[in-house]
């Protein structure tokens, strides 16, 4: 088989193919630039939104801190006026367990008539641990001379 194009210049066909290829390449490049520009715009918009949100959070945090400090100052002033008006009650330990859950009030016992069992061995053991003679005398309801006599006997 023979081709009619033999002997002719094939430049006319290539020019059209090259033009189409160049146009497609230019379109690809233009679309790539548009995508890059839109991505940059989105990045800038997100950064601006993050910055605005951060500033809003910081402003809210500052306002909250100022408000809390004002409330704390009012509470301190109220506590100071109450403390000036009435004497402070002695601090009590917090109760735990069933008494705390049921809310039953604890009763203060009258211990004035209670007697401490005077155990001479216990007096000697406490003295060995470093208890003072006056402290032992007060704890056991004895005189200092009696405690010294117990310690001397042991």
Q: Which terms summarize this structure?
A:
5 helices, about 150 residues, elongated, mainly alpha
The low-confidence parts are none
Number of strands: 0
What oligomeric assembly is this protein in? single chain
Tell me the series of helices and strands, N- to C-terminal: HHHHH
| Helix content, binned percent | 55-70%
Amino- and carboxy-terminal Cα gap: 138 Å
SS content category = mainly alpha
Mean pLDDT: 85
| Tally of alpha and pi helices | 5
Number of domains: 2
Strand content: under 5%
- Which term fits the overall shape? elongated
In short:
The chain has 154 residues and is mainly alpha-helical. It folds into two domains: 10-86; 116-154. It has five helices and no strands.
Structural summary, described in words:
The protein has 154 residues and is mostly helical. The protein folds into two domains: 10-86; 116-154. The protein is 69% helix and 0% strand. It contains five helices and no strands. It has helices at residues 11-85, 98-102, 120-128, 133-140, 144-153. The radius of gyration is 48 Å and the shape is elongated. The model has no long low-confidence stretch (mean pLDDT 85).
């Amino acid at each position: 088989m023979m081709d009619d194009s033999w002997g002719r210049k094939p430049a006319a066909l290539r020019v059209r193919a090259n033009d189409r290829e160049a146009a497609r390449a230019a379109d690809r490049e233009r679309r790539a630039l548009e995508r890059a520009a839109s991505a940059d715009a989105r990045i800038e918009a997100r950064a601006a939104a993050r910055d605005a949100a951060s500033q809003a959070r910081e402003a809210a945090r500052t306002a909250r801190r100022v408000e809390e400090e004002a409330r704390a100052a009012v509470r301190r002033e109220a506590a100071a006026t109450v403390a000036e008006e009435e004497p402070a009650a002695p601090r009590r330990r917090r109760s735990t367990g069933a008494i705390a859950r049921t809310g039953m009030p604890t009763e203060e016992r009258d211990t004035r008539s209670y007697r401490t069992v005077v155990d001479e061995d216990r007096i000697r053991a406490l003295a060995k641990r470093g208890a003072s003679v006056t402290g032992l005398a007060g704890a056991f309801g004895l005189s200092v001379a009696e405690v010294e006599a117990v310690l001397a006997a042991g």
